[in-house]
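Notes to self after the Tuesday call (sharing in case useful).
The group wants a holo model before anyone commits to mutagenesis around the pocket. I volunteered. Ligand is adenosine-5-diphosphoribose. Logging inputs and output together so the record is complete.
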Amino acid sequence: MPAPLDCRTALPTLPPALLERLRTADEVLVLTGAGVSAESGIATFREALTGLWARFDPAQLATTEAFVQDPARVWGWYEWRRRQALEAQPNAAHRALAAWAERHGRLRLVTQNVDDLHERAGSRDVIHLHGSLHAPRCFDCARPLASPALPKTGDRLLAPPRCPACGGPARPGVVWFGESLPAEALATAWDLAERCDLCLVIGTSGLVQPAASLPVVARQRGATVVRIDPQPAADFGGDWQLLGAAGAILPALLERL
Ligand code: APR
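Result:
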C-alpha cells in the first residue's frame, strides 16, 4: 500500500493509477462518518478533547439501559444533538458528494451519521446505518413519531413525549450500543460493498462494526479503497489514504475527474 498522500495544504498531483480509478469506476460506494460533518460544526465522537465520547459517557446516554434508567436525560441529550444538526449547514464535503453522485449516476452513499446534512446538500437515497436524529419512534410499540418542537435553549431536560397510540415514551431513532442496525439498510450496504469497484471511506475512525467491515468486503471483492481523513490509519488495509479535511479534498478531487 503506498504511503499516505499529504493533502493538508492542497491536493497534490495524483498517482495515475488512482486518478484512473476515480475517473473510470463503474459502481462507487461512499461510506461516511462523523468527520464529514465536522466542518459543519458538529462534534465527532472520538477526537481527543472535542469528541462526544471525550465529554459524555456513552453508557449513560447511548444505550437502552440508560434510557430506561433516565428517559429525560437521554431524550434531552439527543434533542440537544438534534438542535445542533438543525442549526448546522451542509459543508463542501456534503455538497461535493451530492454533485459527484449527480454526475456519476452509480454512486451510493452509506453513512454512520444521524444528521441530515447529506440530504440537505442534495444527496438522495442516503443509507443511514445508525438511524437518524429526525426519526423518533415509540419505545414500546415502535410506531414512528413526529419530532416535537425543540425546547427553548436552556430549558430543563424534558421527559420524552408520549406515543398517541399506546402512551409509551418516544425514543430517538438512532441505533444505540448493543442494538441491531436496521436490517434493510445493512443488507443494502453489504450488497453495495460486494458490487462496487471503488469504495471511498470518508471521516470515520473505522472502529465500529459492522460499518467498518464494508471497505474490507469491498476490497476482498476487488474494489479500490480510498480513505479521506486528516489522521492516517495505521492499520488501513485499503489502497490509498488522502490526508486532509474532506471539505477541502472532495471538491478538489471532483475538479480532477
Ligand atoms: N474531514 C475528514 N475526516 C475528519 C475531519 C474532516 N474535516 N475531521 C475529523 N475527521 C475524522 C477523524 O480523524 C476521525 O478519524 O473523522 C473521524 C471521526 O471518527 P469518530 O469520531 O470515531 O466517528 P465515526 O467513525 O463516525 O464513529 C462511528 O461510532 O459512537 C459511534 O454511532 C457512533 O456513528 C458513530 C460510530
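Two things stood out.
The mean pLDDT is 95.
The beta strands are 5-6, 28-32, 107-111, 127-128, 131-138, 170-174, 198-202, 224-229, 240-243.
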